[in-house]
Every structure is written in structure tokens, then in C-alpha cells.
Amino acid sequence: MEINILAQTAKAMVSAGKGIIAADESSGTCKKRFDAVGVECTEETRRQYRTMMFETPGIEQYISGVILYDETIRQKASDGTPIADVLSKKGILPGIKVDTGAKDLALHPNEKVTEGLDGLRERLAEYKTLGAKFAKWRAVITIGESAGRRIPSEACIFANAHAIARYAALCQEADIVPIIEPEVLIDGDHTIEQCFEAAETTLEEVFEELNHQGVAPEGAILKASMVIAGKKAAKQSSVEEVADQTLRVLNATVPKNLAGIVFLSGGQGDEQATAHLNKMNQSGKQPWPLSFSYSRAIQNPVLKKWAENPKANVKAAQDILLSRSKMNSLASQGKYSDELEKERPY
């Protein structure tokens, strides 16, 4: 483990005004997104769509890294350039999703544990040769009730925290920066208080396990959920409440020497996720840079425009990607406002 290399890479991932695009949707998830906009989902259409995004002129102003899927990191752009090289030539760090998905947790109905540790050391070595500088592992934490019990259960939180820590240790052994993503789902009718409790318990356990495994915080990034009421909750959270409660849980649980925190959007509206990030960055200096690692909150309008005519709408879709990336870049600096959305090209 070269801690200097890890720390430098992690610092670059959260450099001022820049964030990460999550383009690591599995083929199944990608099919759902493509089906929704009427595009056939094949290996070639996925390649065309993602290459269109990565070749956007000027995107490197706002984007520090892109999380790729296994299929994508092996693909080439139309001119034969490996996709990882397309990104690297722009100064954008290529990353890779390495977990194999969330599966049912035995004896715990409606809870999941993420798999993918088997063979991970060897896969990381291969991904490094393909150009990956960082990796991502996502765990899924559900709030609610199941079989008469409140969830998340201790068993679910511990199983996922332990897996995350072992993954992160293997990444750092390979000089690859781990993104740690314990996602607390915002589906359901839970209150913001219930979300805070689940997030706090999860993050405490995750960082305890990371410490047990010897993972260096300065060479790791947290991909965090925002603390927010569930989508079906009777009382929805205000922008101020989300920013306040999210910062409160992070300051209570996250080591001060962690390299940085990027947020997932988790199904929030595009502008909603941007506004929440902006408010946090307007709330005073934090121990870590706070930025974004959005998938849908950046890609939704991009995919919609591209799907209307994949050949003719390349520039229009790229303009939208540049616009949404710029909005989130401004939010990562506390400089975003609703007024700026009037200038967007869609």
C-alpha cells in the first residue's frame, strides 16, 4: 500500500468544484432506464450512450472521475481508443464498480447484503491494468418493518460494514482508492429522524470495521446518503432540514482525516439533489470536501434528450450533461441558486 499515491488520488477525486459521475449501472438497471425512454438496450447502444457522455467537450471542468461498469471499462470509443483512456486524456480518473450486487440476507427478510469479495484481489489487479484508479462498493440499508421487527437490523448493518471494510482493505492493498457507499434507501414512509438514526448506526459500524481492517481514511472516499424523510412520508423534509441533519450525522461519525465525501442522489429530483448539496456547502467549513457522485440526478435529462434521436442529438445531450455538471459543481462550492436553472439548455 502506497499511502501517498492513495491520498493524492483521493484528493484529486474531491478537488475544488469537481465531482464524480456514476455511470456504473448494471446491464439490468441500464435496460430499465433505456426501456423508459424507448431505446433498445444492447452492448452497442450502452457503449454509444456512455461514450457520448465521456467525450463531452469541457466536461473535465466539473468532473474529476467516472465510475464505470465492468463492460464499459473493456469497451472502446468509435475511434478505437479504450474508454478509460478517453477519460484519462481529459484528466478524468476512471473508476470501477467491483461489487456483484445486493442479495437477500439469510434469515432477515427484506434486508440485503452485498456480495463480491470472492476473487476481488485478482479482479482489482486486472482493473488496475485496464486503467482504474478507484473503485466502488455499494451496500443497501432499508428503513422500515419486516416480520414484526424494525429494520435495519444489527445483523444487516454489521454484515455490510464488515464486507465494505474487507473490500476497502483489498483496494488499498492494490493502490486503488475505495469509495465506500453504505446507501440508506429513501423509499418508504420513514421520518427524517428515523433516517438519521439508521444513518448514524450504519456509519458508526462502517468506520469501526474500516479501522479494524487497517484502512487508511486519508486514502478513502465516503459516498454518503443524505438524511431525508422517505418519499412516501407524510411530512417531507425541507432543504434546510436535510442539510442540517446530514451534516450533524457526518460530524458525529466520520473521521476528520477522511479524504472526502461525495453524495449519492438516491432517487431525489435532479434540482433537489443539487439544492441539498449547495445548502450543505453554504453551512460553514466542514472537515472534508463535500461534493457529488450522482447517476440519475445528472443523467436523467441527458438520456431523455439523447434517446429522442441518438445520432442527431449528441451535441444537445452533451450540452445538458455539461449544464447539470456545472450546476452540481457550483453546489459543491455553495454557489448554486434556483435562478441559474433558467439558463439551462433544456
UniProtKB/TrEMBL annotation:
It comes from the Bacteria. Its EC number is 4.1.2.13. GO terms for molecular function: fructose-bisphosphate aldolase activity. Pathway: Carbohydrate degradation; glycolysis; D-glyceraldehyde 3-phosphate and glycerone phosphate from D-glucose: step 4/4. GO terms for biological process: glycolytic process. It catalyses: beta-D-fructose 1,6-bisphosphate = D-glyceraldehyde 3-phosphate + dihydroxyacetone phosphate. Keywords: Glycolysis, Lyase. Belongs to the class I fructose-bisphosphate aldolase family. This is Probable fructose-bisphosphate aldolase class 1. It comes from Candidatus Kaiserbacteria bacterium RIFCSPLOWO2_01_FULL_54_13.
